[in-house]
Amino acid sequence: MEAQIKKLHNHFILCGYGRVGEATAGTLKEHKTKFVVIEITQENAEKSRQAGFLTIQGDATKDEALKRARIDKAGALIAALGDDADNTYTTLAARQLNPNLPIIARANNIEAQKKLQLAGAHRVVAPEISGGERMAMLALRPATVEFVETVLLGRGQELLVEEIEVSKDSPLVGSTIKQVEERFPGTRILALRHKNGVLIPNPNPNATIEKDSSLAAFGTTEQLKSIEGCCQPRGISLAKKIKAG
Beta strands 159-165 and 214-220: pairing type? Predict the structure, then answer.
């Protein structure tokens, strides 16, 4: 297993294999994502291995475990530990070892959310708060929630939503949203994120795509692959793909 981990590149590191970590691993598996689990307890580490996942039994708050998981070559890290302090220490350690690594962290309350953001987490998720919001929305707008989740998670559907990065040398730089949609019939650009991080939902059709921005695109797998290919420099193979949501 160590030999397999050493070969990983552009993979995800999942820290924690408790209830939240196990559910996260299941979703990553559904999307055929390469990832390695770091779990400190022998029981949960063995449970992860039995599920077929590459697993390191170790402390995710320590540099040693993160280095074993090839954090220098990782594409993203998910801190799904049960303790807010552990997730904060893991985020701090990961940020020091790989300054540009996207980090998604779990929090149990608003105070922890703020601390994790200060520690360097790009996104912070509070499962209990998110779960409550989801239950309320299922009661208020069940059909809408079902549609959005089906599309975002890609369960049994060909239609997906993905965020696609536009490189500085992409042929699409300088094009308008309308021109991109015309070039790839059947797709829709749902949002445009500028390089400064500002997100524009439902962008104006005449909005211009700038270098180092990103597009939230809706379409079939093949359509999204085509857009992704054009978002990279000419002659370069497909780059890292980031799932929305």
Answer: antiparallel
